[in-house]
């Protein structure tokens, strides 16, 4: 019954309130997807900048740190990054990263040219250089914690007019063995049942950048979710409820739910 009442209250909320929420959410999403935060990932200090922004937001709303005196829960992990050179030419045509191709997140850096041998309808290789080129219907990037002994280039199949036959590649990778990340955790104490807690969460990290010119904004993954959590935090800070409400914004989701796993392990440890 409580869930039904909440759903109805949202459904019939005043239009002005909904409009205000929409404006607030758009502002947060536009901020988090801006070049300054560089995809909230592992290059250009993007994730750390986002963590600072979110911490300041929770402070401004009047939340308290969930533990101790800090909103920040630090942890670390290894991650493979691509901070520098990112040049790929196929059949003497220079391609655009993030649009024409993506680099496999586990890839090693490479600076070389040569010929490709077709293995099947979608795979092309240069065995000597440990290079694999594939044709994909959809380009989807991720984060990887290790570096492989090969380089993988995934091409958008729809944009390739001819089969890959030759290549010239200059890609720089950097493995960071202990990348510093942080969950952002705030709480609003309940007015009559402070020891009972309702938790709202979202992850704020995204894929960051591929080279020096291309970044992935991550509006729906997950700036939109962060905007919703911030909207709730702002509202309930001004309207405390009987039960405490915690607001946790996780890092490390793209590398395998590492932030949420870290918090769970800390909270469940004896």
Protein model, in words:
The chain is α+β, with helices and mostly antiparallel strands and 270 residues long. It has two domains: 25-79 and 175-268, Aminopeptidase (3-Layer(aba) Sandwich), CATH 3.40.630.10; 85-171, no CATH class. The chain is built from five helices and 16 strands. It has helices spanning 2-11, 15-32, 46-61, 219-238, 258-268; strands at 64-65, 72-81, 86-90, 93-94, 101-103, 110-115, 117-118, 123-126, 131-136, 151-156, 166-171, 174-188, 193-203, 209-210, 214-215, 243-250.
What is the radius of gyration computed over CA atoms, rounded to a whole number of angstroms?
Answer: 22 Å
Query: Mean of the pLDDT scores?
Result: 92
- From N to C, what is the helix and strand string? HHHEEEEEEEEEEEEEEEHEH
What proportion of the residues form beta strands (DSSP E)? 25-35%
Question: Structural class of the secondary structure composition?
Answer: alpha+beta
CATH topology of the largest domain: Aminopeptidase
| Sequence stretches where pLDDT stays below 50 over 5 or more residues | 1-19
* Number of separate helices: 5
Could you describe the largest sheet, including whether it forms a barrel? 5 strands, mixed
Q: What is the first-to-last residue Cα distance? A: 36 Å
Total strands: the figure is 16
Q: In the CATH hierarchy, what is the class of the largest domain?
A: Alpha Beta
Total count of domains? 2
CATH superfamily of the largest domain: Zn peptidases
Looking at the overall shape, the CATH architecture of the largest domain is 3-Layer(aba) Sandwich
The percent range for helix content is 25-40%
Apparent shape: elongated
């Amino acid at each position: 019954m409580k869930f039904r009442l909440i759903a109805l209250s949202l459904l019939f909320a005043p239009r002005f309130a909904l409009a205000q929420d929409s404006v607030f959410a758009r502002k947060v999403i536009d901020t988090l997807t801006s070049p300054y935060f560089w995809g909230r990932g592992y290059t250009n200090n993007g994730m750390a900048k986002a963590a600072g922004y979110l911490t300041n937001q929770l402070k401004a709303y009047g939340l308290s740190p969930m533990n101790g005196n800090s909103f920040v829960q630090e942890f670390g992990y290894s991650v493979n990054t691509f901070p520098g050179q990112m040049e790929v030419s196929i059949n003497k045509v220079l391609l655009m990263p993030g649009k024409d191709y993506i680099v496999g997140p586990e890839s090693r850096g490479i600076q070389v040219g040569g010929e490709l041998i077709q293995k099947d309808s979608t795979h092309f290789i240069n065995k000597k250089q440990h290079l694999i080129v594939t044709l994909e219907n959809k380009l989807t990037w991720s984060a990887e914690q290790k570096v492989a002994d090969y380089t993988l280039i995934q091409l958008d199949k729809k944009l390739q007019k001819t089969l890959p036959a030759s290549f010239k590649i200059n890609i720089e990778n950097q493995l960071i063995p202990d990348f510093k990340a942080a969950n952002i955790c705030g709480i609003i104490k309940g007015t009559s049942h402070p020891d009972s807690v309702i938790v709202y969460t979202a992850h704020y990290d995204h894929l960051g950048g591929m080279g020096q010119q291309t970044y992935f904004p991550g509006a729906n993954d997950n700036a939109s979710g962060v905007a919703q959590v911030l909207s709730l935090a702002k509202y309930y800070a001004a309207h405390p409820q009987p039960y405490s409400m915690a607001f946790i914004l996780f890092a490390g989701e793209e590398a395998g739910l590492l932030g949420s796993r870290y918090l769970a392990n800390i909270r469940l440890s004896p």
